[in-house]
Amino acid sequence: MTDASVPITQDLLTIPRKLQDGPTNLVGLTRHGLHDALVEAGTNQKQAKMRTGQIWQWIYQKGVRKFDLMTNLSKDYRSLLKQHFKIDIPETVSKQVSKDGTRKYLIRIAGGHEVETVYIPEQDRGTLCISSQVGCTLTCSFCHTGTQKLVRNLTAGEIIGQVMLARDDLGEWPKVDHKPLNTTRLLSNIVLMGMGEPLYNFENVRDAMKIAMDPEGISLSRRRITLSTSGVVPEIARTATEIGCLLAISFHATTDEVRNKLVPINKRWNLSTLIDALHDYPKVSNSERITFEYVMLKNINDSDDDAYRLLELIKGIPAKVNLIPFNPWPGAPYERSSNNRIHAFSEIIFRAGYASPVRKPRGEDILAACGQLKSATERARKSAKEVAAETEN
Ligand code: SAH
Ligand code: SF4
Questions:
Q1: d(CA 287, CA 360)
Q2: Is ligand 2 within 6 A of the CB of residue 148?
Q3: Are 197 and 137 a contacting pair, CB within 8 Å?
Q4: Ligand 1 center to residue 70 CA distance, Å?
Q5: Centre of ligand 2 from the C-alpha of residue 48, in Å
Q6: What CATH number should be reported for the domain whose range is 28-86?
Q7: Residue 134 CA: which ligand is closest?
Q8: How far is the CA of 262 from the centre of ligand 2 (A)?
Q9: Residue 293 CB less than 6 A away from ligand 1
Q10: Which fold, 91-392?
Q11: Which of helix, strand or coil describes residue 80?
Q12: Mean pLDDT per 10-residue run, the chain (393 residues)?
């Protein structure tokens, strides 16, 4: 079913690919983009490929942000670069550290907007949960981000910039002129599960993830990156063909009636349309299962019948079901299912042969858990629309 007449999104204010005039930011350009920018600035065509590689390594392998530190480039060439380019990542406004070690960064991007990025350390990995939009145009009723009005897409530089600023904070760049660090990575995984719907900002997310995967830079395996979507069906196949990372689906309900309320994009692409797209997902295989995320909401979607319906729906799809205990936020209209209920649900899924882990809430004391992200200033102030509406009355 496709019903484009149903309003399920809020307005997107701007969709900038390039935000400012003045020197071009090199962060976020693809390899091709960097090459072309260097040529445009006067780099000799013959040397452009080599220069691209050198500059790429300085920025993404060594974490260098000053042209003067790029010692394998001549002084003249460095001053040419300085005239035309800058190397900028978003500014970290504040950092909060949870008692469980989770770190939440509030970052400011061009235009003064703010988004949040969360680092979650675990025994065998460290996962960075990154944002792809300021707020979200969708309005899932259990998600705090969905109540935030102000929205714009992040640029590729602002998306990969979150990885770079977390590596700065974790001290995870090799020292210039020293051998690369050869330890277990602190930042080993990326999940696109912060603020925003990544498939509504596809090109920028793709370009940023290509940079994250590039072997001459941050060099994360595509299997260590997971993109989570609420179900933007027309873009799902591109995730496999153009990015190649793992896919997670915010499923959350087993009937259209309930899913329409929880994940309103379901009114445009309903359960059967979504499931068809997942059956066709070009890369599905047992080694690359699709993760079905399922938020556990008391008396809404957590019955045994729901669990059995879920099994019917995902039949034939290599899948894993990730149960997320609801993370409450001030004014939220739902409650978390009881632990007993969550485990009974998980057991039904598990007995049918699927992994069904229950996600451990992390960083709750600093409102950093899944679905709680909403920038501090947004939380504190009323939206422009609300203020305008009040003045009219
Ligand atoms: N917009 C994307 C990615 C960001 S949300 C998406 O919806 O998939 C990341 C995950 O957190 C999604 O599965 C989302 O449904 C879930 N989530 C949102 N609010 C939540 C909350 N309050 N408690 C638990 N999970 C939540
Ligand atoms: Fe947006 Fe995802 Fe939150 Fe829905 S759950 S409002 S798609 S961030």
A1: 23
A2: no
A3: yes
A4: 41
A5: 41
A6: 1.10.150.530
A7: 2
A8: 10
A9: yes
A10: TIM Barrel (3.20.20)
A11: helix
A12: 49 50 93 97 94 98 96 96 97 93 94 92 94 92 85 95 97 73 82 95 98 95 96 94 95 98 97 95 78 98 98 96 92 95 98 96 80 62 45 39
Note the pTM of the prediction, 2 decimals: 0.91
Instruction: Please tell me the distance from the alpha carbon of residue 306 to that of residue 300, in angstroms, as a whole number.
Output: 9
CB 213 within 8 A of CB 221: yes
Catalytic residue among 116, 158, 197, 378: 116
Is the CB of 131 inside a 6 Å radius of any atom of ligand 2? Answer: no
pLDDT of residue 87: 98
Is there an atom of ligand 2 within 6 Å of 321 CB? no
Task: From the CA of 230, give the closest atom in ligand 2.
Answer: 7
Domain boundaries, the chain: 28-86, 91-392
The amino acid at residue 223 is: R
d(CA 176, CA 137): 41
Helix (H, G, I), strand (E, B) or coil at 168: helix
- Residue with CA closest to ligand 2 atom 4: 140
Q: Which residue's C-alpha comes closest to atom 8 of ligand 2?
A: 196
Q: How far apart, in whole angstroms, are the C-alpha atoms of residue 345 and residue 356?
A: 9
* Catalytic one of 158, 235, 370, 378: 370
C-alpha 52/C-alpha 198 separation (Å) is 28
How far does the chain reach from its first CA to its final CA, in angstroms? Answer: 40
In the block, tokens 């915010």 appear at 250
139 burial class (0-12, 13-18, 19+ CB within 10 angstroms)? middle
Check if 136 is active-site.
no
Atom of ligand 1 nearest to the CA of 228: 8
Residue written as token pair 């660090």: 181
Structure tokens at 115: 């988004």
Contact assessment for residue 70 and residue 54, using Cβ atoms and an 8 Å cutoff: yes
